[in-house]
């Protein structure tokens, strides 16, 4: 029971490290083969759900297809796209990210190289702008929120306009409920208290989500 409680605590704290406390009114859901890495102004609920402020905002998402192994699930191969910046405009709506579903390994690999997504509200497609956020090198521990900010400063085609940037800055000025440094300290404490097997399970859970 103690092991389960520690595992739950580690999971919740890890998720909390990427959260902000901005007020928001747009709910976004992405399919299981996509991961939300960051949002311009809002809060990540988990890898497939986020809540964002009204107005012009951005999602940073990544396609993650799994190619099953014929021998064992341990040998499954993961195909990932470059992170995609998706800019949209919405207020008080529930949005769903819609993408084609590759049918086989070849289609997965091709789609990961050039993913195309849309956002829909009540079955109607929104006007969006999409652009790849090209990455290189080690991605473990990447601060995706910071990378999204760098992308906006570089003026990419899906960068926020001045109005959207003002909303993001205002939301970013909200005082966090729990300081990131405090959350990090609690996470480290729980990790050190866990037995070796639980640590391995946590690392195995966390690394693919970085």
UniProtKB/TrEMBL annotation:
Domain of life of the native organism: Bacteria
Keyword tags: Signal
InterPro entries per UniProt: UPF0319 (IPR018635)
Keyword Glycosyltransferase: no
UniProt entry tagged with the keyword Signal: yes
Pfam name, any one: DUF2057
Signal peptide: 1-24
Similarity field: Belongs to the UPF0319 family.
PANTHER family: UPF0319 PROTEIN YCCT
Name of the molecule in the record: DUF2057 domain-containing protein
């Amino acid at each position: 029971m103690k092991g389960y409680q520690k595992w739950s605590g580690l999971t919740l704290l890890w998720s909390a490290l990427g959260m902000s406390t901005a007020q928001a009114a747009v709910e976004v859901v992405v399919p299981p083969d996509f991961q939300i890495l960051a949002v311009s102004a809002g809060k990540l609920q988990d890898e497939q759900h986020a809540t964002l402020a009204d107005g012009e905002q951005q999602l940073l998402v990544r396609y993650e297809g799994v190619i099953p192994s014929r021998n064992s699930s341990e040998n499954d191969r993961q195909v990932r796209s470059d992170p995609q910046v998706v800019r949209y405009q919405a207020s008080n709506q529930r949005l769903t990210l819609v993408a084609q579903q590759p049918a086989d390994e070849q289609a997965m690999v091709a789609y990961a190289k050039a993913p195309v997504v849309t956002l829909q509200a009540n079955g109607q497609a929104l006007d969006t702008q999409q652009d790849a956020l090209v990455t290189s090198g080690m991605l473990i521990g990447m601060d995706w929120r910071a990378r999204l900010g760098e992308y906006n400063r570089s003026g990419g085609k899906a960068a926020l306009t001045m109005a959207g940037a003002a909303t993001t800055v205002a939301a970013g000025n909200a005082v966090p409920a729990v300081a990131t440094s405090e959350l990090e300290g609690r996470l480290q404490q729980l990790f050190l208290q866990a037995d070796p097997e639980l640590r391995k399970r946590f690392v195995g859970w966390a690394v693919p989500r970085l």
